[in-house]
């Protein structure tokens, strides 16, 4: 392939800028993504030719064309805004309760963004305000667990995959051991020990029983990559273990890990809500969708809206993350489709 | 084959010991004193506390307790719950209920999941395919406790089609709703998985050969396509059956099914250590055996796979 391109692109490149052209072309053909036509077209613009598109740039290019990415992206930006600055969406205090006037008051669907838009709950609190403020706990837990799980599982998987031998045996059996306990059950038993539960204790519990999948994916990916020629080359040049692992192997195995992590994010949010619903996750002063759904369950016959609204937002958030994960997977790893 | 099974069985031992040890340590070393909790709000008599702690072996070092538990286990003794009932009795009551519910849900999942998956895989991109895909996406993103509560409210309370909660767990008609709720999530996964593999294998050379040599469509799809497409689906179904056997904490809670999930949840809430450890021990065994069976099923479905 390089042989085909060079003669065609050569003249254009020379006409373009000069010495850096050759390097740029070599990179592009190595990556074997750019067609000859593209190379010629890009040769005119010096800055775009400096290096070939990386996996990230390639994925971004793919993502931009996917409408699912935009739908889930817009939804998530809204939800993150809601989590960061809930007062942008409502000026009602979610903890303000007025039982005398508003006990299970029905929703007023035409009163957009007002206190009574989604009605009132059993405590006479505005369901709309509580739904808006509830986003924070879910988003924080979801994002933090995903980051923690990716780091912890990633490191364990990388060590197991790279060093192999008895290290791999021990770490793989450890992964199996944790796999034997389902996420919800592990979270339940662990959180039972804490009387004062915050988003951070919930994050800790979900991380403790959630890292195994990433570890397995990472281990598999590292095992395939460590036999690659560029690793041998790096070692021959005298690169240390850390350098090989983090500078050479890590960038090449990140793709599948990011995919698994994004899809799992929605699952962590659902698990947090489930734990709160069971009364063992977050507790009342914290506004959370799970807590609200749990509280509304007893009066579902009289005020179904108090259950439906937080439940819809919860489902929508999970859906948005799953869609985003799907889109990212399609962009990063077309083989998995 | 025999050697493979033997090696896998040997590998299970450290995992079994590790998982039971992990749950044991979590249950017994975390704060909260179950013996003091037995006294409720009354002041505990120190002599009685000491006697009870000695009776349950709680005064020994943790590892010693674990050793006693494991040796008891191999003699068929699951220990005693803090209410004085043998844990084995509690489980003997709960497991039949859960097994009934799990098999019911599993049947729904297999029939509808594979059926819809094959149907949509064969007609990829058509209206039915799109509709089913959207349906599975919605099902996957609604958490089970939301789905269960909604189904109970709409079907059980508002339209009165079924009893909202299960009064008699031997009556299969009462188990329909919980079984459907329990099955839906896995059903969505099975559908998507089947659809992908069917659509992929449809392009395979052997299918073209089968069509070219004039086999009836039923045989092409039923034998050539299905057998090859089902391998990843069977993997999923195998692990999923293990999960379903573990009881569904949420679904059983909502519909008041007195199964393993409910027993486990109440045991965790009330710090019933022996019950939690006992149930989880059985669950780990179920999980290990189901993953072994899945591995063996590979060889049945795909003759190219041979276990030395």
From TrEMBL, chain A:
Its main location: membrane. CDD domains: TM_PBP2 (cd06261). It comes from the Bacteria. Residues 1-27 are annotated as: Disordered. It is a multi-pass membrane protein. PANTHER family: ABC TRANSPORTER PERMEASE PROTEIN (PTHR43386:SF6), OLIGOPEPTIDE TRANSPORT SYSTEM PERMEASE PROTEIN APPC (PTHR43386). This is ABC transporter permease.
UniProtKB/TrEMBL annotation, chain B:
Signal peptide: none annotated. The keyword Transport applies. It is found in: Cell membrane. PROSITE patterns: ABC_TM1. InterPro entries: BPD_transp_1_N, MetI-like, MetI-like_sf. The chain crosses the membrane at residues 12-30, 99-119, 131-155, 175-193, 233-255, 275-301. Keywords: Cell membrane, Membrane, Transmembrane, Transmembrane helix, Transport. Residues 95-298 form the ABC transmembrane type-1 domain. Its main location: membrane. SUPFAM superfamilies: MetI-like (SSF161098). It is a multi-pass membrane protein. Belongs to the binding-protein-dependent transport system permease family. This is ABC transporter permease. The lineage of its organism: Bacteria, Bacillati, Actinomycetota, Actinomycetes, Kitasatosporales.
